[in-house]
Specification:
Elements (H helix, E strand, L loop, with lengths): L3 E2 L1 H13 L4 H19 L5 E6 L3 H15 L3 E6 L9 H14 L5 E5 L13 E5 L13 H10 L3 E5 L21 E5 L2 E2 H5 L2 H4 L1 E5 L6 H4 L23 E5 L6 H12 L5 E7 H10 L3 E6 L9 H8 L4 E4 L7 H13 L4 E3 L16 E3 L3 H8 L7 H15 L2 E4 L4 E4 L4 E4 L11 H12 L5 H23 L5 H9 L1
Parallel strand pairs: 1-8, 2-3, 2-5, 3-4, 5-6, 6-7, 7-9, 10-11, 10-13, 11-12, 13-14, 14-15, 15-16
Antiparallel strand pairs: 16-17, 17-18
Length: 488
């Protein structure tokens, strides 16, 4: 697992934690508690603290920090830089309602609602906690936040920023307008990419605080990972939401291409091109008028298809090879030529796994083997223990610079830099065609995210669909049932 996360990966991890039945309110409580503990243990003699809070999750952390510092005898001034009704984060709203009640009874807490920059005065506290903004900033900071940042930076107090200094982009470390200049940044769970790239004078020292996120929330795919997918824009036009090419089929396995292509369409790609032998192409066309089918003379795929594949590859964002293609030598020659000629994301599935030269693999490719295909491709037996499987797949991903999705009871998806596990799905998925659905999902998602992300998200989506079908119909369901659920 990664030691450094992008803001998007952190949001996905938070949501995955909720998916794993740990409420985000618990994470906010843990974050506030850990920061308060840090202040108590590091600055036991500095008892006057100002906390500047915004309306998001960062601000909610500030409310929790205030509550815990009061229990340690601190005098706290809490500044909410907005009207309370503008607090949209439900966890932050809960903690604000709590701190509002405490402010009515605890003389050591002064709650200030700041709606105008003229209300902000110079701050002579011992410590200032910056809990204003935790997300990226576009353009200039709005008031009263902008004046609050100035006040914090002009103060002689020790400045502690929660997660990232407000005004600093947590993704790339850039500052568009201005930022809080922190003595210490207390970042939550793991290091953020923006902190590594930021100017050192902005972020000060960095302390990474554990807030109780379990390993499963990063190691296993969850609903949070779906945040990485894009929603088609209201002003998008044909081709902007992805186009794919599927190269496969022979007369005996027409259904494989059809399943893969229909699976692509469930992910709202705009165009699905198919290159298949002429004898298959004429039948494939009849399954769905949305397919753009190109037939090549003959009953199997040969080098005669290469020029057409290359021409179409210029129009698409990702390519899938192998679906129902057969394992003839001539087809293998075509596939290996494709591997050495195409630089866009390429999913290698089914029969193609038996034909390709693994020395042609590279970082834009995804392999989707089950156990026997894996052994045939790499000449390696799969260990029994999960940790040993992960270790082997990670080693092979590094060796061949490729993403590997090993289909198993627990799917393992490995890349050069990371790995993911997927536990969705059930034994009903042993029916023929589910692998084709998976390949179609991967190539469709690869039009908008990295090949690695596409592979593990597709595995999760397919398994969830199959689990829903099982819950509704029991065992004995078919591929069409899963496909229908993918469309929902």
């Amino acid at each position: 697992m990664k030691d450094i996360l992008t803001p998007l990966e952190m949001r996905a991890t938070d949501k995955n934690t909720e998916y794993n039945h740990i409420p985000t309110l618990v994470l906010m409580e843990n974050a506030g508690t850990r920061i308060a503990d840090y202040i108590v243990n590091t600055y036991p003699n500095k008892k006057k603290v100002s906390i500047y809070s915004g309306t998001g999750g960062n601000g909610g952390d500030g409310f929790v920090i205030a509550r815990h510092l009061l229990n340690h005898g601190y005098k706290v001034r809490l500044f909410l830089l907005a009207r309370p009704e503008n607090i949209k984060n439900p966890d932050s709203r809960t903690n604000y309602e709590s701190i509002k009640i405490i402010a009515q009874t605890d003389k050591n807490l002064k709650l200030n609602i700041i709606t105008d920059s003229t209300q902000i005065q110079p701050d002579n506290s011992d410590i200032i906690v910056d809990a204003i903004l935790g997300t990226g900033v576009n353009g200039k900071l709005r008031q009263p936040i902008s004046s609050a940042v100035d006040t914090i930076n002009y103060s002689p107090a020790i400045v502690l920023s929660v997660d990232v200094p407000s005004g600093l982009n947590p993704d790339n470390g850039q500052v568009v307008d201005k930022t809080v200049v922190a003595h210490t940044t207390l970042t939550l769970h793991k290091m953020k990419t923006g902190l590594l790239k930021a100017q050192k004078s902005y972020i000060g020292e960095i302390e990474v605080l554990d807030i109780g996120i379990p390993r499963v929330s990063e190691e296993y795919v969850g609903e949070g990972d779906l945040l990485k997918l894009k929603t088609p824009g209201t002003d998008s036009h044909k081709g902007q939401n992805g186009s794919v090419l599927i190269v496969g089929s022979n007369p005996d396995y027409i259904g494989a291409v059809v399943f893969a292509a229909n699976s692509c369409l469930t992910q709202l790609v705009d165009l699905v091109y198919i290159v298949a032998p002429e004898s298959s192409a004429n039948i494939i066309k009849q399954y769905n008028p949305e397919f753009i089918v190109r037939g090549v003379e003959g009953k199997i795929l040969t080098m005669d298809a290469f020029d057409m594949v290359m021409e179409l590859s210029e129009r698409v964002d990702a390519v899938l090879i192998g679906s129902g293609s057969g394992i003839e030598k001539e087809t293998g020659i075509l596939f290996n030529k494709i591997l050495s000629s195409i630089d866009i994301p390429l999913v290698i599935d089914a029969d193609a796994l038996k034909l390709i030269d693994r020395d042609l693999l590279k970082d834009n490719m995804v392999l989707t083997p089950h156990k026997h295909e894996f052994t045939g491709l790499f000449g390696r037996d799969i260990p029994k223990k999960l940790d040993d499987k992960i270790r082997l797949l990670t080693q092979l991903s590094v060796e061949y610079n490729v993403t590997i999705l090993l289909k198993d009871v627990v799917d393992i998806i490995s890349s050069v830099d990371d790995y993911k596990l997927n536990k969705t799905g059930n034994q009903g998925m042993t029916i023929g065609g589910t692998g084709d659905l998976l390949a179609g999902l991967i190539v469709a998602l690869a039009t908008q995210v990295s090949p690695f992300d596409a592979a593990y998200i597709a595995s999760f989506i397919l398994g969830c669909a199959a689990d829903k079908v099982l819950a509704e119909k029991g065992f004995g369901y078919g591929v069409e049932d899963i496909l229908k659920k993918l469309k929902d």
